[in-house]
Design brief:
The chain has 318 residues and is mainly α. The protein is built from 15 helices and no strands.
Length: 318
Amino acid sequence: MAAYSKRLFNPGSNTHKIIFIGCLAMCLMPVISPPVALVLGLVVAQTIKNPFLHLNQKATNLLLKGSVIGLGFGMNMFAALKAGEEGILITIVSIAGVLTAGILLGKWMKIDKKISFLISAGTAICGGSAIAALSPVVIAEEKQISVALATVFILNSVALFLFPVIGHYFDLSQTQFGLWCAVAIHDTSSVVGAASRYGAEALQVATTVKLARALWIIPVAFGTAFVFKADRSKIQFPYFIGLFVLAMLSNTYLSFIHPFTPYIVAISKTGLTITLFLIGTGLSFEAIKAVGVKPLVEGLLLWGLISASALFAVIKLI
């Protein structure tokens, strides 16, 4: 019996892999929502663990980008531009405010400079995507990157459940909630997951504003290269955003694709659900413990700052 248990909980065992693949297959079912998939992933991380953890980051990265591009086929370009215009002022102010607060908070709390900056950039712009793009610019080590990513993904997981509840409590409109999500939730996956629970219009606003926000990686990266005296050739442009725009343009102007777009959007939402499951499988207690108290507190304070100020702004201005 002991030998069987050892094989069952050994991450390399065939039984372990079969259970993991079975949980992954469950996420293909329509009844499994993004939040449920995330919880399922967290359960897997604490029990049988992810036997393919070495492939997790690449898989989530590709799935997220592909899913976002697919969601573009369900959006209208003119509605997206209107949503982007409404969010541009809040975007600029919030990014500048969070980066400044993060730098000051990191110095005050005596947190490693690169970890503090990556957490601040992830909170200010677009979570894991910003951290991944800026890590080569600041020449961050693997441990520094891991701590920043874990901090962001832990808070992302909370936001996915918390934001829809708060949105209904304050009776936010679809536009208000979508804008708030895009500004205050770190990662695109959780933004789309939370907004999709609130409504179709909220999803459109949130996705568009979040991706427009992601473009700020470029100017922030150039500024970062100057401050850290790094190689500017390491700056990465988020090309998938261009494909997302092309998908929106196609849906807006090419009527012959309209019979297929509902299927593309449905597949993309399933891809997002799988993405959140995989993100959950990477958040084991060991990974959470490795973050440490100070980076997590910094991330929590910055997230509280941007969440509260953005909520106030959308209620008063939108």
